[in-house]
Specification:
This protein is α/β, with parallel strands linked by helices and 443 residues long. It has eleven helices and 20 strands. Helix 1 (23-44) crosses helix 2 (46-54) and helix 9 (350-358) packs across helix 11. The longest helix has 22 residues, at 23-44. The structure holds 5'-O-[hydroxy(phenylacetyl)phosphoryl]adenosine. 5'-O-[hydroxy(phenylacetyl)phosphoryl]adenosine (DLL) is lined by residues 101, 144, 150-151, 221-224, 243-248, 252-253, 310, 312, 333, 336.
Length: 443
């Protein structure tokens, strides 16, 4: 063990060494890599070169890291407009993998990796797992979907590089998930937090107590979830629930991960350089201030992303983490700028509703938000499942619960919502990313 290693809760893996680089050295490395990647994008990606030329910029503009703010942004529509391969900086002969993300409209966005890119991605995933206290000897059940989605293969390669045993079960087939959790002695599971809730629920129906299994950690991401949700998951299963963040455009899962402090996600910023910008003015904001996360890939060869606007809202923690890592942390991503809906002039995010609901005992963590319009005004209706115990309560008790939930939401979002308690097991369960909002308003 080397002297930078202070983190008793996490497992040491040599690949995690850059997590602890002295800050000055880290910044030098970042600047060095930034210059090289900007040069690469300028030389090989026509769209980036055009935008630089329009601004009369060359890669030589990067005298120090803050000069990154002079570079043009990349946005999701750039990937669509150049579909499928227009942003590649490597010839196809060097591209060993393609992934794609479906998004909401039409064609998917396509992302590419060289052999070196896969190695960087796997090393980032190793650092995620190590930060969750996992290592050789662990049995990792990977219930992220395998296929074009980056979750499955990303976690798979990382777990193998970690030296753990991987169970490539993919998503779905919940009874079989639970059988393997038990029979194979799985120690960690990777899936979306909403799918793990389904596993908790189904295990109880099958008479299996997850607390009694060797399962100790969950690596949960790909969708927003709240601190209240973490509490429910940890209480319902006896495991430690860690947050993992990533997006296809940057690499997939493994852009950042919580450490054992469970207080913010460390960004592997030697490969993914984070900035926070004001989503309206697009000006950089200082650490500690909320805004939109913008990421630049510092080492990705096949498809460098320069100042990619993620739409994810967060902040960079100004303080150091007690774990000893020098790479910075972002606050958990509880919302995206495009998740927001406006109801009677008030901006509302689904995560605010989740937080309010789960603060109240007696509900199951399954809910949906239905947006309607009667021709004049937008309305919001929240459907929330009650627990089987609460379901058998007297009418009066249910009414009181309903009022309490509505008041809890109103307190957070400042508008009145219609709240409907629904029977256990009536809201659709997800095996991947949960769909929380059903928008029935006329388009
Ligand atoms: O969801 C990659 C991934 C797979 C991350 C497995 C973690 C685990 P996309 O499908 O491209 O990639 O979706 C990326 O999902 O911009 C966020 O809005 C959201 N997201 C991902 N992780 C988290 C998280 C994968 N931990 C988009 N918390 C991102 C909140 C998350 N939102």
């Amino acid at each position: 063990m080397t002297e930078f290693w202070h983190d008793p809760g996490c497992t040491f893996h040599p690949v995690s060494a850059p997590d602890y680089l002295p800050v000055k050295q880290l910044r030098q490395l970042q600047l060095h890599r930034l210059r090289a990647i900007v040069q690469r994008a300028y030389d090989h990606v026509a769209l980036f070169r055009k935008r630089m030329d329009e601004r009369e910029l060359t890669p030589g503009v990067l005298e120090n890291l803050s000069d990154i703010a002079k570079l043009p942004f990349t946005v999701k529509t750039d990937l669509r407009d150049t579909y499928p391969f227009g942003l590649f900086a490597s010839p196809m002969s060097e591209v060993v993998r393609l992934h794609a993300s479906s998004g909401t409209t039409g064609k998917p966005i396509v992302v590419a990796y060289t052999k070196e890119d896969i190695d960087v991605w796997s090393s980032a995933m190793v650092r995620c797992f190590a930060a969750c206290g996992l290592g050789q000897g662990d049995i990792i059940q990977n219930a992220y979907g395998y296929g074009l989605f980056t979750g499955g293969l990303g976690a798979h390669y990382g777990a193998e590089a970690l030296g753990a045993t991987i169970i490539p079960i993919s998503g779905g087939n919940t009874d079989r998930q639970i059988m393997l959790l038990k029979d194979f002695g799985t120690t960690a599971i990777c899936c979306t937090p909403s799918y793990f809730l389904r596993i908790i629920e189904r295990a109880a129906e099958m008479g299996i107590d997850l607390h009694e299994l060797p399962l100790k950690a969950g690596v949960f991401g790909a969708e927003p979830w709240t601190e209240e949700m973490r509490k429910r998951i940890e209480k319902g299963s006896g495991i430690k629930a860690f947050d993992i963040y990533g997006l296809s455009e940057i690499v997939g899962p493994g852009v950042g991960n919580e450490c054992c402090e469970q207080n913010g996600l460390h960004i592997f910023e030697d490969h993914f350089y984070p900035e926070i910008v004001d989503p309206v003015t697009l000006e950089p904001v200082p650490d500690g201030q909320e805004g939109e996360l913008v990421l630049t890939t510092l080492s990705k060869r096949a498809m460098p992303m320069i100042r990619y606007r993620t739409r994810d809202i967060t902040l960079i923690h100004a303080e150091e983490c007690p774990c000893g890592r020098t790479i910075r942390r972002i606050r958990r991503i509880s919302r995206r700028s495009d998740d927001m809906f406006i109801i009677r002039g008030v901006n509302v995010f689904p995560s605010q509703i989740e937080e309010a609901l789960l603060m109240v005992e007696g509900t199951a963590p399954h809910y949906e938000i239905v947006l309607t319009n009667d021709g004049t005004l937008d309305d919001i209706e929240v459907h929330v499942e009650i627990t089987p115990e609460a379901f058998s309560d007297r009418m009066g008790a249910l009414e009181a619960l309903q009022k309490k939930l509505a008041a809890s939401i109103e307190k957070i979002i400042n508008i009145h919502v219609k709240l409907k308690l629904v029977e256990p097991n009536t809201i659709q369960r997800s095996e991947g990313k949960a769909k929380r909002v059903i928008d029935q308003r006329p388009k």
